[in-house]
Amino acid sequence: MLFLVRRSELDLLDLPIAEITSQFQKYLAALQFLDLDQAGDFVVMASTLLEIKSRLALPNAEEEEEVPVETTDDPRGGLIQQLLEYKRFKEAAQALDERAAEWRERYPRLSDERPDAVRDPSADRIKGVELWDLVSALSRVLERRVIEEESKIRYDDTPISVYVEQIGAKVREVGRVPFTSLFDNASQRSRIIGIFLAILELLRHHGFRADQ
Question: What is the DSSP string of 110-155?
C-alpha cells in the first residue's frame, strides 16, 4: 500500500480511495496469478479500502444533526494511521540495515560468522528497482495478453534454470531487453510464471539489472 502511495506521489493524508483500490485490484490479480503468500495481505487491505469507500459514499444516518467539524470522523483515518506507522517501521528497518551493512564493512571477519537475518523480500531492492515494480510490470503484461484457457491441468516440466539460460543469453546478445518482450511467446500460465521467476533469479543472483 505504501508502495502504491509512493509510486503515485500521493499524500498519505489525502488518499484517493478509488484510484488506490483500482491499483490494488491489479496487483492482487498478478499476485494471485503467481500464487504468492502476499496475496492474502492484499485481500485484507483491499477489503479495508472498499469498506472505507462505502462509508464515504453512504449517507450518514445522523447527518441531519449538527455535528462540530472537529468531531467528524474520517473513515480514512484508521488506514492513514496504519500507513504512517508502517512507514516509520520501514524507515527504522532500513536504518538498521544500513548500520548492519556498515558494521559488516568495518568488521568483515566477525560478520562472516553471524547468520544472515531473515528479511522481508518485498522490501528488497533488486538491482535498481523494487520487487513491487516487477509485480506491477507483470500485471501490465497480464492485462495485455490473452492467457490460454486450459481445459485440463498442465504441468510445466521446464526447469527455471532453462528460462534463466535463455533469458540470460538474449540479454547478453542484445544488451538491453524490454521486460514485456521476454513474454512474447508465452501464452500459458505455467510458462509466464517460469519466465517471471527466472527474471527474479537473474536479478538477484546473476548480476543482471532492471531499470525503469
Answer: HHHTSPPPP--GGG-EETTEEHHHHHHHHHHHHHHS-PPPPSS---
Minimum mean pLDDT range among 44-48, 93-97, 132-136: 44-48
CA–CA gap between residue 145 and residue 5 (Å, rounded):
27
Q: 3-state class of 5 per DSSP?
A: helix
Domain boundary pick from 96, 119, 142: 119
Query: Does residue 101 sit in the same domain as residue 153?
Result: no
Domain final position from 69, 93, 119:
119
CA distance 146 to 184: 11
Q: Kindly state whether residues 194 and 95 are assigned to the same domain.
A: no
pLDDT of residue 92 exceeding 60, the answer is yes
Burial class from Cβ neighbours inside 10 Å (0-12, 13-18, 19+) for residue 45 reads buried
Name the residue range of residue 67's domain. 1-119
Q: Cβ contacts of residue 53 below 8 Å, gap of 6+? A: 17, 18, 21
What pTM was computed for the model? Answer: 0.43
pLDDT of residue 80 exceeding 70: no
